[in-house]
Specification:
The chain has 6 helices and 2 strands, in the order αααββααα. By secondary structure, it is mainly alpha-helical. Strands 1-2 form a two-stranded antiparallel sheet. A hairpin with a 5-residue loop joins strand 1 and strand 2. Helix 1 packs across helix 2, helix 1 packs across helix 3 and helix 1 packs across helix 6. The protein starts with a helix and ends in an 8-residue tail after the last helix.
């Protein structure tokens, strides 16, 4: 499994918003400047995050974005599922997939174990965890 730029930048965008909870809506250009990410690229990610319910938006003079919920409730695994699709390491573990070898596949346990470890790890990290780790001077989680 390889996490794309889209997934990594989505997490950085949410972390940036999480660091500014309680304030005004934040313009995308400000996030782009702070995160050194193209505003055009963020414009492609925002609709995905918005439709998944991670963002609250406001148009107009003081428009921009906020987190729709607490950063402590947003799991990295959920963000990656929205931006990357399934976290399954092989297609036969996808919910919509059918595999006629599944019942006698000798290697299935490997992929199920990997999927379990990855899912539990990513679902165990929230946007708030990333913020807290950064504030503690421990650097960022590598995503």
């Amino acid at each position: 499994m390889k996490i794309s730029t889209k997934g990594r930048y989505a997490i950085r965008l949410l972390v940036d918003l999480g660091e500014h909870v309680g304030g005004d809506y934040i313009a995308l250009k400000d996030i782009a400047e702070r995160q050194n990410i193209s505003k055009k690229y963020l414009e492609q990610i925002v609709p995905v995050l918005n439709s998944a319910g991670f963002l609250s938006t406001n148009r107009g003079n003081h428009g921009g974005y906020k987190l729709a919920e607490s950063p402590a409730r947003i799991k990295v695994g959920d963000v990656l599922r929205v931006t990357e699709g399934s976290l399954a390491p092989v297609a036969c573990l996808d919910d919509n997939s059918y595999c006629d070898r599944k019942e006698y596949c000798q290697t299935l346990f490997i992929w199920e174990g990997l999927y379990k470890v990855v899912t539990e790890y990513l679902d165990g990290i929230t946007i708030q965890d990333i913020i807290d780790r950064g504030h503690a001077g421990m650097g960022d989680f590598v995503i």
